[in-house]
Design goal:
Order of helices and strands: EHHEEEHHEHEEEE
Radius of gyration: 17 Å
Structural class: alpha+beta
CATH architecture of the domain at 17-25 and 86-175 and 185-234: Alpha-Beta Complex
Largest sheet: 4 strands, mixed
Strand content: 5-15%
CATH class of the domain at 17-25 and 86-175 and 185-234: Alpha Beta
Number of helices: 5
CATH topology of the domain at 17-25 and 86-175 and 185-234: paralog of FGE (formylglycine-generating enzyme)
Number of strands: 9
Distance between the termini: 33 Å
């Protein structure tokens, strides 16, 4: 199976016990954060995140629109009343703020990877067999986070495959022994700058050949226009 240079070599970590949300955080859950003043609560935000929302007047996720007190979601071709059971798409800074407000945290890349693989006896999950989920250009827009119960892994966790990338709290960096591919030396190495965070999982427009736990995507924490949601952990 093909993998990009940043997926190699191997990093082995000892993982203390943690709890992780079964589903991605939904629009409805994030709406409570916004309605409770989350965008006005300095204590929920990092210094850089607070400066970003203040400077840009940000009061809700970039995919939301508000007209006459009603929230709408911008889809590929339309705007629809906010679907409360769809995953919320936000920047990493907004995801971090919500997690802080909820008394939780964003997962590290290692935590997300461990949870996504499921129990040891099913660690071959995603290795070539079809997995239920909203990916591979099957739809233009998200679906409810509980739309594919048949896709739950051995831990009973759902919606890891597609339906929106998932932010982690891990800076994008090389694994020990990293070597760039000769045919595309800047694909990953140009972004090992401590300014980008790892995303995992995949969106509606992620090809099936890339829906594997090892695949690593990355964006800067204040970029709001990516199909990226999140789930939270308790350590």
């Amino acid at each position: 199976m093909f993998g990009w240079d940043n997926e190699y070599e191997q990093s082995v970590l000892r993982m203390p016990a943690f709890e992780i949300d079964k589903f991605k955080v939904t629009n409805g859950e994030f709406l409570k954060f916004a309605q409770c003043g989350g965008y006005q609560d300095r204590g929920c935000w990092s210094a850089a995140g607070w400066e970003w929302i203040q400077k840009n007047g940000i009061k809700h996720p970039g995919f939301w629109r508000e007209r006459e007190g009603i929230c709408y979601q911008r889809t590929m071709f339309d705007e629809v009343p906010l679907p409360l059971d769809w995953p919320v798409y936000v920047s990493q800074a907004e995801a971090n703020a919500y997690a802080c407000w909820a008394g939780k945290a964003l997962p590290t890349e290692a935590q997300w990877q461990r949870a996504a693989y499921g129990a040891a006896e099913k660690k071959d999950e995603w290795s070539g067999r079809p997995v239920a989920g909203n990916y591979d250009f099957r739809r233009w827009d998200p679906v409810p986070v509980n739309a594919h119960p048949e896709g739950e892994n051995a831990f009973g966790l759902a919606d890891f495959v597609g339906n929106g990338w998932e932010w982690t709290n891990t800076l994008f960096a090389a694994f020990p022994g990293f070597e760039p591919f000769s045919f595309y030396q800047g694909y990953s190495a140009n972004f090992f700058d401590n300014q980008h965070y790892v995303m995992k999982g995949g969106s509606m427009r992620t090809a099936a050949c890339l829906t594997r736990p090892s695949f690593r995507n990355w964006f800067q924490p204040h970029y709001p226009h990516v199909y990226a949601g999140f789930r939270c952990v308790k350590n």
